[in-house]
Structure formats: C-alpha cells, structure tokens
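Task card 7
Instruction: Convert sequence to structure tokens.
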Amino acid sequence: MYAFDYHKPKSVADAVAQLGKASDGKLLAGGMTLLPTLKQRLASPSDLVDLAGIAELSGITVSGTTVTIGAMTKHAAVAASAEVKKAIPALASLAFGIGDPMVRNRGTMGGSVANNDPAADYPGAVLGLGATVHTNKRTIAGNDFFKGMFETALEPNELIVKIEYPAPKRAAYTKFRNPASRYAIVGVMVADTASGIRVAVTGAGPVVFRQKEFEAALSKSFTASALDGIKVSASGLNSDIHASAEYRAHLIGVMARRAVTAALG
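Output:
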C-alpha cells in the first residue's frame, strides 16, 4: 500500500469536513473493493475517511410500506432482518446471496451502491424496487442514480446516508452467479410495485438497467410465459472470460422468468 492519512469521524458532518480537506480523499465503508485496490497499488488516496464509527449511518427501520436502511448497514444485517424479510423478502434474499459470510459481515449497502460495480446486486434492488437514495446533500431517485460503469450521480464530498425502499406488492431477485466471487454474471430483479412493473438487470452490461420490453409484457400478464418470444439484444452487453454478450442476453430472459416464478410463490 501507499502511505495515507487515516481518519475515523464520529458524525457525517465531520466525515464531509475531513474529505473536503484532503487533496485526494476516499471514503471507507466496508472496504471490500477499496482495500484490495490499495493492496494491489492501483489507488493511492491521500486520506482514508472511515465511516465505521458513525452510528447514525447504520440501522433498519420500517414505517408503513417503506423500508429505510442506513448506508453502513452490513449485508448480513439486511439478510437476517425479520422486518426486511416481512416487508421485502426479495431484498433480504438478495443480501443473503452476496459473496460469502466474511463479505456479508463486512460489506455495506451504501458502499456497494456508491461503488456501482457492474456485477453488484444492490444496484438491481435500488433500480428494480424504485428506491430513493438519500445523501448528506439531497435525495436522488434510483432511476437517476446510476450513470455508467463505477459512475453514479454522487458529487464531490457527497456520501450516501440511507436508502428508502418502497415495499412492492410482490418481487423476486434471481442471479446466475460467478461460482468463485458470487458476483452476478446476470441478475434480475422483478417487482410489481405501486407505480407498475419494474425489471432491473445487473451484471449483464456496464451499468444496471431496466428491461422495458419485459416490463410491458409483464404489465399485461404477470406470468413467466408472458416473456416467451421476447429476444434480448446482445448489443452493448459485457463480454468476458465468464460469459459472452450473447450468453448474457440469453441469461437475462432465463433469470427474469425465474424471478417472476419466484415472485408468484
């Protein structure tokens, strides 16, 4: 690793202040991506601002039909939460499928969403459930948050405080996972929400996206067979050692059908 200054603030305001003073500061949440990057000497921030000591950033609350989860809440806490399992079982299931026990007990929801890895699971939940991202400065609709590969709407000195998920009528998330990392080669969140059907796809492209053709078909008939005959284009999808773009296009349909079946119970 390169040398850096380490800070452990006790409040969001303090964290923002420390970040603002640094010449090239980075926020440290669970560290699941940042620390390996530092160890490989691929990043050399001047300062690390550790958010672990900020109590207000952790916790899960349910009010009416809204589930609010603090940015520093661990994946394992989301997966184990009785409140999340009751209100949005698809979200608890998604969290349980992230990485391995070590990752789930260190990684955080806010860190995952802010990092916006193309193969991460939580972006599929944010976009698929129509969540709202709250930062220290503003609120950002899930539709407007993810901009590109590892790119979000977050501005300098802006950090995620919490994420609000509206409970859907029914939903499910399924993924074809990398057997080593458990990242999504393709993951699909299907949700029947108060504002309509939403289908979000992660892992397949450079950034999470909605599959509008599937949404239109499922709006007419919420059945797996409603997706029969809809061909997904491979154009613009990822192609790597794990799967070709064409295979990912095929998997989008497979995972979407499985998600619909799971949502129907």
